[in-house]
C-alpha cells in the first residue's frame, strides 16, 4: 500500500486529479480500505487484448468482492455499522457492474494505479528507473501513454453511447412505423359499421395520442443523445490533437534535431520504433473516431431531427480529416539522410519511411516515392505552396522506388540504394558566396489513399541541406557549410536560414562534437584546447576562458576570411588537424600523448623547466594538418627548445610518428616525464628479418636529424625538413624499384638511413 500512502500526500491539482479517478465505477473507499490487497494483485499480468484471459479477471473480481464481504462481516459496534452497510453495498455494486465484463475492472484498476503513480512521480519530480507498473520508461513517455489510455477510454465511451443511440433510434423508427400503421387503420375505419367504428376509433386515437407523445419526447431525447455524443467526440478530438502535437511537433521534431546533430558527430538519433508505435496508436484512434462521426452522420441522415447537431457534425468531420491529414503528412520522414556533402557521379543511398504505413491499409497498395534535387529558392517556394513548375536543379539517377512493407518490423519504407547525382544546375551566387556555400535539398514525394480511396494524400519531405561538390578538394569548405547549418539552424526555419554569427561557447560545442566523432575518441577538447582555439580565431593573447564566453564568431571569420598572416581560414586549419588525427594519430590522441593545441611560446615555457631530451607534440600554426615535435636540449651556450618542421599526412604515409620518434635518440621523455618507449614502442614497426630473394634486398628507412650547426636549422631554431621530405619521397620511389640502393653516405646521415638487412 506504499503507493496509496504517497497518493494521500498529493496536494492541489494533483489531488483533484487523483480524486477524479474514483466514482460509482470504483469507490475511493474501496481503494482506501483495500489498498494493500489491490496493489499486490497481478493486474499487469492480464492482457486486455486477449479474451481468453477473462477467467483471470473474473477470479480477481470474485476475490475483491469476497474481501469486501469479509471486511463488512467483521465490522462491529456503532462505528462499524455505517461502514458495514457501505462495504456490502459496494460489493453488490461492483458485482453488478463488472460481472458481465470483468476485464473492465482490470482496465479500470490498471488505469487508477498507473495514474496515481504518475501523479506521485510528478509531485516528487523523480523519474522512475526501475520496472514495475511504470516499466522503467522516461516520465514523458509515461505521460504520453497515460493520455493514450484516456483517449482509449473516451473512444470506448463514445462507442458505447453510439450503440445506445443506434438502438434507441432503431426502436424510435419501429414505434414511428407503428404510429403510421395506426393512422392507416384510422383512415380505413370509414368502411366499418358506425357502432364498431366509434369503438375502434376511440381506442386507436388513444393509442395514437400516447404514441405521438412518446415519439415527441423520444425525438427530443434522441436529439440530446446526438448532441451529447457530438460534444464528447469534440472533446476526444481536442485531446487527440493535443496528443498529436506532443508526438509530432515535439517528439518527432526532437528526433529530427538529433538526426541533424548526428550529422555533426552527435549521438545517434535513436530508433523510430517508439515514435512509430505512438503514431500508429494515433492513426487507429483518429480513424475510429472518424468512423464514429460518420456513423452519427448516417444516423442523422436516416432520421433527420432539426437541431444544432448537424453543424457540429460537419465541424467534427472537417476537424478529424484535418487531424489525420496532418498525421499522415508529418510522419512521412527520411530515416536515413543522403550524404550532406554530395559529390556528383558518386553512388549514395537513403531511406524514407511512413510511420503510419502499417495502419490505414496504406501497405496494401504500396506507394511509389520519387526523389528530386532542388535549390534553396525552390525549397522556399515549395513550403509556401507556391508552384515550382516541377523544376529541379539537377538530375538524379535511380530516383524512383516503391515502398516495401516489412511484416516482421511493421515498417513501410523505401530504400534508395543506388542513387547518383548525374549533374547539378547552380543558381546565381550572392556576394562573396562560394559554390561550397550553396545549399540544395533532396525532395521526396509520394501519393497514396487510405480508407478505400476515401482520402488521398500527396506527401512531401525535404532532406537536410546538401552541398554539391565536383572534386574532393571542395570537401573541406563544403563540410564547414554543413557543420554550421546542422549546429545552428532553428526548427521550422525558412530554408535554409542560419544565423550569420554565433556565440563562441556555441561554436565550441559544435567543434568538440565534430572532433570527438571524427577522431572516434572520448577525449574531447579541454578548456585549455578551446582557449587556444579562441586565441587563434580572435587573434588574442588572453588565456582567460571567461573573456571569450561573451564573444561571437561570424561565418566569415569561421571560413571566409584567412587567419592573420596565413592563407587559410580558421576552419581549414581545424579541419586539417581532424584529418591528420583520424588518419594517422588517433591512437596517440586517445593515449594522451599529443597535447596538440599549443603555440610555440607555450611549448618553450613548458619544456625549459624539464630535463634535456623532454619533448612534446603540438599542431603547427603555419601549416594545415601539420604536427611538430618540440624538445629541449643543451646548446654550447644555453639550453634551447628546438622545433622540427611539421610532419603532415604525406610524411606519415612514409613512416609513422612512433617510428620517427623511436629513430630520434635525443628524444627521451614525453612531457612531462614519461619515457618515450612506454608510450610509443607498441606502435613501432617490428624490425625486418633478413630476407633475400630474387636478387632483392629489403631496405629499412629511419629518420635522422643532426643538431650540430646543420644547414637544416632555420633562423628560429627550427629544423627545416622540406629537404628531408623531398629525400623521403625519393626513398619511397626507390623502394618501388627492383635495383640496389644507390645512396651516398652523406645523404644517409642527414635525414634517412636505408639499412640493408
From TrEMBL:
One Gene Ontology CC term in the entry: nucleus
Alphabetic keyword roster: Activator, Coiled coil, Cytoplasm, DNA-binding, Nucleus, Phosphoprotein, SH2 domain, Transcription, Transcription regulation
InterPro entries the UniProt entry points to: p53-like_TF_DNA-bd_sf, SH2, SH2_dom_sf, STAT, STAT5_CC, STAT5a/5b_DBD, STAT_linker, STAT_N_sf
Primary location recorded for the protein, binned into one broad class: cytoplasm
Compartment annotation: Cytoplasm; Nucleus
Coiled coil: 215-242
TM spans (from-to): none
SH2 domain ranges (all copies): 589-687
SMART domains: SH2 (SM00252), STAT_int (SM00964)
Entries under PROSITE patterns matching the protein: SH2
One MF annotation (Gene Ontology) recorded for this entry: DNA binding
GO biological process entries: anatomical structure morphogenesis; cell surface receptor signaling pathway; epithelium development
Family, as annotated: Belongs to the transcription factor STAT family.
Protein name in UniProt: Signal transducer and activator of transcription
Origin species: Electrophorus electricus (Electric eel)
Amino acid at each position: 500500500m506504499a503507493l496509496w500512502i504517497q497518493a494521500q500526500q498529493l496536494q492541489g491539482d494533483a489531488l483533484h486529479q487523483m480524486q477524479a479517478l474514483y466514482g460509482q465505477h470504483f469507490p475511493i473507499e474501496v481503494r482506501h480500505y483495500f489498498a494493500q490487497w489491490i496493489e499486490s494483485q497481478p493486474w499487469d499480468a492480464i492482457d486486455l487484448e486477449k479474451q481468453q484471459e477473462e477467467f483471470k479477471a473474473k477470479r480477481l473480481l470474485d476475490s475483491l468482492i469476497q474481501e469486501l464481504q469479509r471486511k463488512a462481516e467483521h465490522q462491529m459496534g456503532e462505528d462499524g455499522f455505517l461502514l458495514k452497510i457501505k462495504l456490502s453495498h459496494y460489493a453488490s455494486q461492483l458485482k453488478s457492474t463488472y460481472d458481465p465484463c470483468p476485464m473492465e475492472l482490470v482496465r479500470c484498476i490498471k488505469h487508477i494505479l498507473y495514474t496515481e503513480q504518475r501523479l506521485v512521480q510528478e509531485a516528487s519530480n523523480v523519474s522512475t528507473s526501475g520496472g514495475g507498473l511504470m516499466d522503467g520508461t522516461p516520465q514523458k513517455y509515461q505521460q504520453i501513454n497515460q493520455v493514450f489510455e484516456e483517449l482509449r477510454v473516451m473512444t470506448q465511451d463514445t462507442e458505447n453511447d453510439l450503440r445506445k443511440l443506434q438502438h434507441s433510434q432503431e426502436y424510435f423508427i419501429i414505434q414511428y412505423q407503428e404510429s403510421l400503421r395506426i393512422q392507416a387503420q384510422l383512415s380505413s375505419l370509414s368502411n366499418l359499421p358506425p357502432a364498431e367504428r366509434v369503438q375502434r376509433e376511440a381506442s386507436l386515437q388513444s393509442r395514437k395520442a400516447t404514441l405521438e407523445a412518446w415519439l415527441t419526447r423520444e425525438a427530443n431525447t434522441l436529439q440530446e443523445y446526438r448532441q451529447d455524443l457530438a460534444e464528447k467526440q469534440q472533446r476526444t478530438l481536442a485531446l487527440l490533437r493535443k496528443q498529436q502535437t506532443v508526438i509530432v511537433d515535439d517528439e518527432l521534431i526532437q528526433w529530427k534535431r538529433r538526426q541533424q546533430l548526428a550529422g555533426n558527430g552527435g549521438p545517434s538519433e535513436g530508433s523510430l520504433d517508439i515514435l512509430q508505435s505512438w503514431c500508429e496508436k494515433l492513426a487507429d484512434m483518429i480513424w475510429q473516431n472518424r468512423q464514429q462521426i460518420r456513423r452519427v452522420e448516417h444516423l442523422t441522415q436516416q432520421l433527420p431531427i432539426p437541431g444544432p447537431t448537424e453543424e457540429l457534425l460537419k465541424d467534427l468531420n472537417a476537424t478529424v480529416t484535418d487531424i489525420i491529414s496532418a498525421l499522415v503528412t508529418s510522419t512521412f520522414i527520411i530515416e536515413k539522410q543522403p550524404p550532406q556533402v554530395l559529390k556528383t557521379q558518386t553512388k549514395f543511398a537513403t531511406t524514407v519511411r511512413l510511420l503510419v504505413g502499417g495502419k490505414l491499409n496504406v501497405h496494401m497498395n504500396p506507394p511509389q516515392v520519387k526523389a528530386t534535387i532542388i535549390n534553396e529558392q525552390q525549397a522556399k517556394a515549395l513550403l509556401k505552396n507556391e508552384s515550382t513548375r516541377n523544376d529541379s536543379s539537377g538530375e538524379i539517377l535511380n530516383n524512383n522506388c516503391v515502398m516495401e512493407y516489412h511484416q516482421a518490423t511493421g515498417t513501410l519504407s523505401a530504400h534508395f540504394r543506388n542513387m547518383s547525382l548525374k549533374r547539378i544546375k547552380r543558381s546565381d551566387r550572392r556576394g562573396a558566396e562560394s559554390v561550397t556555400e550553396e545549399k540544395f535539398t533532396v525532395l521526396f514525394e509520394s501519393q497514396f489513399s487510405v480508407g478505400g480511396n476515401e482520402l488521398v494524400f500527396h506527401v512531401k519531405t525535404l532532406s537536410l541541406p546538401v552541398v554539391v561538390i565536383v572534386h574532393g578538394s571542395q570537401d573541406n569548405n563544403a563540410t564547414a557549410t554543413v557543420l554550421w547549418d546542422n549546429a545552428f539552424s532553428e526548427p521550422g526555419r525558412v530554408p535554409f536560414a542560419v544565423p550569420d554569427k554565433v556565440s563562441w561557447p556555441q561554436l565550441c560545442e559544435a567543434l568538440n562534437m565534430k572532433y570527438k566523432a571524427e577522431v572516434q575518441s572520448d577525449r574531447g577538447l579541454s578548456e585549455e584546447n578551446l582557449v587556444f582555439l579562441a586565441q587563434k580565431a580572435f587573434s588574442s593573447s588572453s588565456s582567460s576562458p571567461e573573456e571569450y564566453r561573451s564573444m561571437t564568431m561570424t561565418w566569415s571569420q569561421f571560413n571566409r576570411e584567412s587567419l592573420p598572416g596565413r592563407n587559410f581560414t580558421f576552419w581549414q586549419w581545424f579541419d586539417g588537424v581532424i584529418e591528420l588525427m583520424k588518419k594517422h594519430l588517433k591512437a596517440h590522441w586517445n593515449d594522451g600523448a599529443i597535447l596538440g593545441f599549443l603555440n610555440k611560446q607555450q611549448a618553450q615555457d613548458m619544456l625549459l623547466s624539464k630535463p634535456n631530451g623532454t619533448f612534446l607534440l603540438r599542431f603547427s600554426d603555419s601549416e594545415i594538418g601539420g604536427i611538430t615535435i618540440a624538445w629541449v636540449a643543451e646548446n654550447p651556450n644555453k639550453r634551447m627548445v628546438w622545433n622540427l618542421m611539421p610532419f603532415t599526412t604525406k610524411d606519415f604515409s612514409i613512416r609513422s610518428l612512433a617510428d620517427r620518434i623511436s629513430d630520434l635518440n635525443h628524444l627521451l621523455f614525453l612531457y612531462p616525464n614519461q619515457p618515450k618507449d612506454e608510450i610509443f614502442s607498441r606502435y613501432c614497426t617490428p624490425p625486418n628479418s633478413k630476407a633475400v630473394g630474387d636478387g632483392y634486398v629489403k631496405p629499412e628507412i629511419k629518420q635522422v636529424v643532426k643538431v650540430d650547426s646543420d644547414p637544416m636549422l632555420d633562423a628560429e631554431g627550427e629544423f627545416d625538413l622540406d629537404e628531408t621530405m623531398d629525400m623521403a619521397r625519393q626513398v619511397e620511389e626507390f623502394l618501388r624499384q627492383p635495383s640496389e640502393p644507390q645512396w651516398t653516405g652523406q645523404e644517409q646521415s642527414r635525414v634517412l638511413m636505408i639499412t640493408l638487412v
